[in-house]
Design brief:
Largest sheet: none
Helix content: over 70%
Structural class: mainly alpha
Length: 163
């Protein structure tokens, strides 16, 4: 009995150490990407043409580059958020009137997402699985909607002919 408990504790400890090593390796592997995201965000923030609301979003993005709780927050809130807001954007993507700034914003955002996904492999896996569920749900809604349109269209045209 005690040997089994020790064995289970050893498995848990090995799993925790392996996960910590994986997270460390991912942090190191994405360090250049994280630095590039921060540099681009800083360029956008310091540019005098950048609107204040865009600069604030870029500052928030910079703050989240090393926030390891952010992926877990998304993993926990993705489905409830999607259900509440109906899969539509609730806030505007930061855009300016200048193509060069928009390009930097897009690059910084892309690098930030890569960095974000590397912060927690388990949370990222959960987010990806939830994304697949959402896509499957949306695809089934579209099929259901098309089916209803065909059935209603057929019954309406059938009733119309008989009238």
């Amino acid at each position: 009995m005690i040997e089994q408990i020790v064995w289970h504790i050893a498995i848990v400890a090995i799993t925790i150490v392996a996960y910590a090593l994986l997270c460390n390796r991912l942090m190191r592997a994405t360090q250049r990407v994280r630095i590039k995201a921060a540099e681009l965000a800083t360029e956008v923030i310091l540019d005098s043409r950048t609107p204040k609301h865009v600069a604030m979003k870029m500052q928030t993005m910079q703050g989240d580059l090393l926030n390891s709780s952010a992926p877990w927050l998304i993993a926990i809130m993705l489905i409830p958020y999607a259900l509440q807001f109906g899969f539509r954007r609730t806030e505007e993507y930061p855009v300016t009137d200048y193509d060069d700034l928009n390009s930097k914003i897009n690059q910084a955002s892309t690098y930030s997402i890569i960095s974000f996904l590397a912060l927690s492999p388990i949370a990222t896996t959960i987010i990806c699985l939830q994304g697949l569920l959402i896509l499957a749900y949306l695809a089934s809604l579209k099929k259901f909607s098309n089916f209803v349109k065909r059935v209603l269209g057929h019954s309406i045209s059938s009733n119309h002919r008989h009238a």
